[in-house]
Design brief:
Blueprint: H1 2-11, H2 20-28, H3 30-40, H4 45-77, H5 85-132, H6 145-169, H7 176-203, H8 208-217, H9 219-232, H10 238-258
């Protein structure tokens, strides 16, 4: 009987593993999965409306500041150069440079403020979803605001360092630009995906080292979620809603990956 029992265990079929592509697609679809879940449970929108409004105000303020700063810089630069073709060329190049710097500053500010203010509300929303899914409140911790600030600053530092490295690597002839672009996109998507999967893990008091290990173990799903979040940031009006439902989708995705 023991021999037959061992033979049965050796020949028993294992559960099928999800392919990398299906894992990526599951992560990519997480914001819409979160949207469907919140629509089936409308009471969750009481916790979702604040991050939506916060995201709208933040995006509008950064856009207005970007336009205003560009026009002020354009008016100021126009007085610095002589009125000839060389001065006009320098003025155009300076305006392009200033625009690039302003965009970089706006992106950096968006990462920090979105991570701090919206991240706090996303964490509260994730907590409510976890309670609804059966996780006892006494098994979770309140994620402090200082944690959100530190997390946002660490992400900004990592993204800035990689962006500078990719910029320098991009000057290598032939292979530099495409390799730098591919690696930069890969890293950005990975960080954004890890950030959203952070919400259910932070509620379980898991540190960044554990979160990074989880993201690496489920790399395809993390990249899928991060790719979706990155694309959504460029869709006006719709992005505040789906970036909020992505926090709910990240909880659902985390539970699925853990199972």
């Amino acid at each position: 009987a023991p021999l037959g029992h061992h033979r049965f265990r050796m020949n028993a079929p294992s559960l099928p593993r999800r392919s990398a592509l299906s894992s990526f697609l599951a992560g990519f679809a997480a914001p819409w999965a979160g949207l469907r879940y919140m629509n089936r449970h409308p009471k969750l929108w009481r916790h979702g409306i604040l991050p939506v409004l916060c995201n709208l105000v933040l995006s509008a303020a950064l856009f207005v500041g970007l336009i205003y700063g560009w026009f002020r810089a354009y008016a100021w630069l126009g007085t610095l150069f002589p009125a000839n073709w060389w001065g006009a060329t320098l003025a155009v190049l300076s305006v392009i440079l200033v625009a690039a710097l302003e965009i970089a500053l706006a992106v950096a500010a968006w990462i920090v403020f979105q991570g701090v203010f919206c991240g706090f509300f996303y964490s509260r929303l994730a907590r409510e979803v976890e309670i609804q899914l059966g996780l006892a409140p006494d098994r979770m911790r309140e994620v402090p605001l200082l944690y959100q600030i530190t997390d946002a600053l660490l992400d900004l530092a990592a993204l800035t360092a990689v962006a500078v490295g990719c910029f320098l690597f991009g000057w290598i002839p032939l292979i530099g630009a495409p390799v730098a672009l591919a690696f930069g996109l890969y890293f950005d998507c990975f960080v954004f995906g890890m950030d959203y999967l952070d919400y259910p893990q932070a509620l379980r008091a898991r540190g960044r080292s554990v979160q990074r290990a989880f993201a690496r173990r489920h790399r395809a799903a993390t990249l899928g979620l991060g790719s979706s979040v990155m694309l959504l940031t460029f869709i006006p009006l719709l992005s505040p809603v789906l970036l909020t439902t992505a926090a709910t989708g990240a909880v659902l995705l985390y539970r699925e990956l853990e199972e």
